[in-house]
Amino acid sequence: MKIIRESSDVDILLIGEGTYPYVRGGVSSWIHQLVSGLPEFKFGIVFLGARPSDYGDILYKLPDNLVHLQVHYLFGNTFEDNKIKPVKDKKSFERIQELYEWIVDAQDDMPQELKGVEFYNKDITKEHFLYSKQSWDFITQKYLENCPDLPFIDYFWTVRNIHMPVWIIADIAQHVPKCKIIHSPSTGYAGFLASLYSFEKQVPYILTEHGIYTRERKIDMLTADWINIKKPTLLKQSDEFNYIKQMWVKFFEKIGLMSYKSANPIISLFSRARKIQIDFGADPNRCIVVPNGVDVDGLKKACLDKREKKIPKVITLIGRVVPIKDIKTFIRAMRIVINEIPDVEAWVVGPTEEDPIYAKECEQMIETLQLKDNFHLLGFQNIKDILPKSGLMTLTSVSEGMPLTILEGFAAGLPCIATDVGSCYDLIYGGLGEEDEALGAAGAVTRIADPSSLAKNYIKFLTDEKLWSKAQEVALKRVNTYYRQDQFLDTYRKMYQEVL
Q: Where does 296-483 sit in CATH, by number?
């Protein structure tokens, strides 16, 4: 644990999983916006990261009302005391079996007796789980029952890596400051910590789910290639082949359900996300929609007022260079566009460090498709320098929540071409009722991974000034009416005051 700012007087404790203040954009921007915009509250943040090597320096100027900041890492820990730890109490070890069964089989919320954080620090410690003979026998038994034809080493480390964060998070829950409200921007590990803390301290828990964490982890796990099954393909059964991946999926499903059972209210950013939360087990009576908001007036002054009348032939994607943003589809689409508009440029504005292998693959694709003069990975930039020089915003992701970048683009006077993920359809065509829908289209929505459709729309909007101007008009009207930062902040202000 590392404590950067320390206070025992915290109103709202935010749990950030791999986000603020070490990662820019997305949820990090939302956290910074929330804390900075509500100076009357004292905030604390517990940052959960994977490994120290994954993060660099703090990337934000911390607001004065952020009075507590502590940092924890869930993986890459070493345990020096690796002697065999026999479990004296047989009934206590049965709780580990119960935890395992809940993760892989049970349909309900975590049993009450497993929610107490002291259980993981006194009754059955992580050393018991890691090094006891009972644990070894139990893992071996489950392996033989469920997937005996898979490499045992893969199953063994999967079980350990799934279970270990439970002990680490239970320990963190005992070492965070007292607060009046605990607030998580996701389910996952952050939501699990918030659930344990809320249960232990009887503190209200607010959940704001930006993307549907469980669904995104399903995408990650079911498309991952980090497990190499040695069994000949013809002998593989589909359920056997996916067993280890499905263990991870079930784990994230279960801790997601635990958040839904613990939190009130459960906030989504748009109506379709609310429906998905309910499908995953959230109580409809607790689920509400609170859209994001942006500094419309500030962006107008910094960007819209500086725009030239001529439409710049620049298509801008603001986002990390990672697979979930599907930068490769953007690259393929631009190859088609440049055949029609040779002087058009594509700018990707976002960090490349998160997935260096994927970023390198994108660079190689740019070179292979002979796009080096037109397609630029710009890294992190100040968007107020980028947006006035752009003609279109785009987003090619395979999964999103409510992208602030689209709203920022709207406020800067940019139509958007986006894939049909998250709230993109609602933002572009109107999803907040008949009046919003009647405004019209602020761009266009395409299918996921469809470079031809993206290219067709890029060409259409960049070559039809009348169409572009109408979309700009709709974008400005929509963001000014429904997605202002002051509306967003006032909603959370009232919510916090109500709970307090």
A: 3.40.50.2000
* Amino acid code (one letter) for 414: L
Portions of the chain given CATH number 3.40.50.2000: 1-293+485-500, 296-483
Mean pLDDT of the chain: 88
Q: Do 465 and 453 contact (CB within 8 A), yes or no?
A: no
Answer for the pair 20, 32: CB distance below 8 angstroms, yes or no.
Answer: yes
Backbone angles phi, psi at 286, to 5 degrees: -100, -10
Q: pLDDT tens digits for 174-219?
A: 889 999 999 999 999 999 999 999 999 999 999 999 876 666 666 5
Give the pLDDT confidence score for residue 252 in this predicted structure.
86
Burial bucket for residue 63 (CB in 10 Å: 0-12, 13-18, 19+) = middle
SS3 call for 294: strand
Cβ distance 362 to 380 under 8 Å?
A: no
Question: 116 versus 47: which is more confidently predicted?
Answer: 47
Q: How confident is the model at residue 236 (pLDDT cuts 50, 70, 90)?
A: very low
How would you class 77 by CB atoms within 10 Å of its CB: exposed for 0-12, middle for 13-18, buried for 19 or more? exposed
Residue 12 and residue 183 in contact, taking contact as beta carbons nearer than 8 Å: yes
Residue 288, helix vs strand vs coil: strand
- Phi/psi zone of residue 50: left (φ > 0), alpha (ψ -120 to 50 degrees), beta? alpha
Dihedrals φ, ψ of 73, to 5°?
-125, 135
* 8 Å CB contact between 378 and 348: yes
Q: For residue 232, is the peptide bond before it cis, meaning its omega torsion is within 30 degrees of 0?
A: no
Transcribe 59-74 into DSSP letters.
-S---TTEEEEEEEES
Q: Tell the residue number behind the tokens 């998070």, with chain if given.
A: 169
The values of phi and psi at residue 184, to 5°, are: -115, 135
Please identify which residue in the block is written with the tokens 């950030």. Answer: 16
Residue type, 373: D
- Give the integer Cα–Cα distance in Å for 158 and 248: 8
Dump pLDDT digits (tens) for 34-91.
Answer: 999 999 999 999 999 988 988 889 999 999 999 999 999 988 655 555 555 555 566 6
- Interval 251-278 mean pLDDT: 91
CATH superfamily ID and name for 1-293+485-500? Glycogen Phosphorylase B; (3.40.50.2000)
Kindly state the tokens that stand for 288.
């509400």
Assess whether pLDDT exceeds 80 at residue 432. yes
Start-to-end CA span in the chain (Å): 29
Q: Which contacts of 355-361 are long-range, i.e. CB under 8 A and separated by 24 or more positions?
A: 355/320, 355/321, 355/322, 355/323, 358/321, 358/322, 358/323, 358/327, 359/321, 361/328
Strand order in the sheet with 443-446: 375-377, 345-349, 314-318, 392-395, 416-419, 443-446
User: What count of residues does the chain have?
Assistant: 500
